[in-house]
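Moderator note: this is an archived Q&A kept for reference. The question asked for a predicted structure of one protein chain; the sequence and the answer are reproduced below.
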Amino acid sequence: MDMSSFTVIGENIHCTRIVKLGGKHTVELPGGGHGLAFRYRDEDRILRVPPDWGERSPAFGSGKVKHVALAIHQALNGSGEDCTAGQDYLAYAAERQIDAGAGYLDVNVDEYSNDPAERGQTMRWLAEFLCARYDVPLSIDSSSAETMADGLEASRKEAVLPMVNSVSLERVEYVDLIRDFDASAVVSAAGKKDLPTDVDGRLANFEQIVGLLEAAGVGRDRMHLDPLVFPISTEPMHGRNFLAATAEAKRRFEGAHLCGGFSNVSFGMPQRKLLNMVFVYLAIEAGASSGIIDPTSMPLEAIAAMDRTSEPFRLAEAFLTGEDMYGMEFIAAHRAGKLD
């Protein structure tokens, strides 16, 4: 499969991202406390967790380290090596995705702070930090129009335009931001009050939001239509319906890109990497040309090289398309070690 024209929207610079305390990414420090181990520019580094981090991040109390939020906090508030480690950790996260083929870096700071002013300042700082170092454009992800505007303003360059993630009938105010900043956009099939799971509902919502974007002068070449990916663990036809909606949207909205947050499909299931990679493969066959994925765990060359005649691929495909209802054969094969 040729994936040379597939655009990766790298998804990992989010303040929601968590690693487990005591897991492979964390270490206990000699003088007490904890840190995150990472390797940057051929040097082993530690991002220290400050003693009062639990007050800033309540998730820490249940053994969860929001590592991107931690890096931002140390970069902005730490001194000496803590500040440097925070900046270098963010650079490490960005460069891993860029080296793996990311065409955009998706950034989200919504969970960094409950204070709108601090959230906006943080988004502006992070966008400026990344844009000063890398030519890869940013995809700004926020549920706040004000934070979105801060990120777009800070990340816009003359030759590299940012992306909005995402606009929908639920967020029509983002249409003006896309127009004003000449941005590209992930265009979600979400409705004003619902998330349609059927093909017709998705396409009806696309008709409305694409119409609003076109009326604002946004060309289809700047639209990445996202029909919405739902977990197959909750409904066995979610994968099939997404693929059908992708194929029909590709036909109906000529000139637009088709996109998706593909890792959502495998939530709650074993062999998530296999399911995600096969789903990307099938989505590309259906017409997708971009995706919100982690290219470090799902390299494009590995997806392109998949053997669709192999047993793991065939079992995953059957599960994803509803042929293997509820994944009974897939789960049995996993338990028998046939998917490893």
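Archived answer notes: The two ends are 22 Å apart (CA to CA).
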